[in-house]
Amino acid sequence: SAAQKDGFDWFMRKEIHEQPRALADTLLGRYATDGSLTLDEIRIATSELRSIQRIVIIGCGTAHYAGMVAKYAIEHWTRIPCEVELASEFRYRDPIVGPQTLVVAISQSGETADTLMAIRHAREQGSKVLAICNTNGSTIPRESDAVIYTHAGPEIGVASTKGFLTQVLACYLLGLYLAQVKSTKFGEEIVAIMHELETMPELVQEVLDNQQQVLELAADFADEPSVLFLGRHVGFPVALEGALKLKELAYIHAEGFAAGELKHGPIAVIDQDLPVFVVVPPRGRDMLHDKVVSNIQEIRARGARTIVLAEQDDEAVEQYADVLIRLPKVQTLLQPLVATVPLQIFACELATQKGHDVDQPRNLAKSVTVE
Ligand code: G6P
Fold this sequence. Notes:
The protein is of the alpha/beta class.
């Protein structure tokens, strides 16, 4: 009923709008009185956490993309080698895991069969398994050694939205906590990143308050047969997630690519008939931003329409963007929390304009409980 949807027409729209609160709830109570980061729910002894040599993150669908974002952050902050893999691929390739591997299983529902089978396999090999999950008491956390719960509240829409954002946030918390345990980052650095994380609910709210342009853009896409999404670094999984949302909801063929791969294939399909979304990294000391800006030029030179997501006052992108979607300023590693939201809104709006049921898209299930 409308009441359950808080006055929204679809659960998905309601859940997109709940993201600031979901992030705030997932951040709640993470500071100990001495200013350090606490993750009480990790019931793995500190000595054991210190002995971790490798992290393997597994998940399916959107949760797998959250894991891709996590890899960049966790490896950068902790210096622990970190891999991410589709849960459905993990067990069948006889992976090398053991007592010094921490397996992190990400699952909104906690019931996805592929992820469950993968953690069973990991534990049989002697690995510790940490679940990142949104559903209290579900099977995956019950069969794990520890669990970090995301506090998104029930997610009804089949396509994950607030589930994704809170998974990404929980992975950041895990990375910072491991960095603290291993002392690869100083206390003040962790506090500074935590402070930036605490502004995220507000920044995501800003994105939600400025969605008019994205809503209008959707109307132009009703007849597009195909859309490309490009991103680099953590913007790459954001691009994959943008493409997945479009497939799931609008039933439009969409692909996400790493922008650096443009010349290795995708550029061959670019012409005036293929719109391209580009997630531009914040300007920083590395050259990522400039490299993605030259990708946009290359796309434009082939006549494609460019829809560019870039931070406030990034003037370098203006002349190459047919549509420019502004994002709040954040550090690169945290950008997925703000950059994903316009893509969710875009897919939801386009799908509803086409008359699709965005809460229960055709052929999809909220939780895939068979392998
Ligand atoms: C299904 C859902 C997706 C979800 C994936 C993983 O395919 O339609 O939205 O990302 O399962 O679900 P999980 O509950 O394990 O995060």
